[in-house]
Design goal:
It contains ten helices and seven strands. By secondary structure, it is mainly alpha-helical. The strands form three sheets. The protein has a three-stranded antiparallel sheet. A two-stranded antiparallel sheet has the order 4-7.
C-alpha cells in the first residue's frame, strides 16, 4: 500500500501531480469523508470522463513511485465508496495525511491518536478546524433586486461560503462584490472560461480554499440562473 511518505514525494513532483491535479485533490479533500463522485470530479475539472481523470492521476503517481496499482489506477488514490446512492472514490487516509503534512490543505490538523482499520493498517483521522462565526455579519454587498442573479450569488456567499470560511477577508472572498460583478458580466460556463474571462489580478486575490471548494458550484449557479 502507498504510504504517506510516498504520497508526499509524489505531491512534491510537478510531473507526478500537476497544478490541475492538485486543484482536484484539494477540492476532493474538502468533501465530507473525503469522498467524491464522478459528477463532482467532472464539475471540478470540467472533464467529460471523470474516471479517466482519476485513473490518469493514479497512473502518473504509480509511474513516478514505480508501484503497481491494486486493480485500476484509481486504487492508488482511493478506495471504492458511495455518497448516498452514487458510487464514489474515497481518498486513501495516507493521501489525506500527506496533503495535510505538505501544506496543500489549510486549517486542518491530524488528531493525536492514530486508530487502525480492520486490516491493522494505521489510519489517521483528520479534524478540520472551524473558525468561530463572527457575531455580526459584515455588510459589504450592495442591495440586489430579489430573484436576480446578483441576489442569488450574494445569498450563496452569505449562507454557504461564509458558513464554511467565516474569517476570510472581504477582498479575498470568492464572491466579493468585485468578483460578483465580473461573474455576472462574463458568465463563465466552466473553469477554463473563468480563467480566461476573469482577470488574473482579481482571481489571485481569491482565497484558495474558497475557490477550490466553491468555484464549481458558483459556475453552476451562473448557468442555472443567467
Amino acid at each position: 500500500m502507498t504510504s504517506k511518505e510516498l504520497f508526499l514525494k509524489a505531491l512534491g513532483n510537478n510531473k507526478a501531480v500537476r497544478t490541475q491535479d492538485m486543484d482536484l485533490l484539494t477540492a476532493w479533500f474538502a468533501f465530507p469523508e473525503h469522498a467524491v463522485t464522478a459528477e463532482q470530479v467532472a464539475e471540478i475539472t470540467g472533464a467529460k470522463r471523470a474516471s479517466l481523470i482519476v485513473n490518469n492521476l493514479g497512473k502518473r503517481i504509480a509511474s513516478f513511485l514505480e508501484i503497481e496499482p491494486e486493480g485500476t489506477a484509481a486504487s492508488i488514490l482511493a478506495l471504492e465508496g458511495a455518497v448516498g446512492e452514487a458510487s464514489a472514490w474515497v481518498m486513501r487516509d495516507e493521501l489525506v495525511a500527506a496533503l495535510v503534512e505538505s501544506g496543500a490543505v489549510a486549517a486542518a490538523t491530524v488528531s493525536p491518536e492514530d486508530t487502525k482499520n480492520e486490516e491493522g493498517v494505521a489510519k489517521i483521522d483528520i479534524v478540520v478546524e472551524k473558525a468561530a462565526t463572527p457575531a455580526k455579519p459584515e455588510v459589504d454587498h450592495e442591495a440586489a433586486e430579489p430573484g436576480s442573479l446578483k441576489a442569488v450569488l450574494i445569498e450563496y456567499d452569505q449562507k454557504v461560503v461564509r458558513a464554511a470560511y467565516p474569517q476570510t477577508p472581504v477582498a479575498n472572498r470568492l464572491l466579493n462584490p468585485e468578483m460578483i460583478n465580473a461573474l455576472i458580466n462574463e458568465l463563465p460556463a466552466n473553469k477554463r472560461v473563468y480563467q480566461r474571462a476573469i482577470s488574473a489580478e482579481l482571481r489571485k486575490k481569491v482565497s484558495t480554499q474558497e475557490a477550490n471548494r466553491f468555484l464549481q458550484p458558483v459556475l453552476k449557479l451562473l448557468k442555472e440562473n443567467a
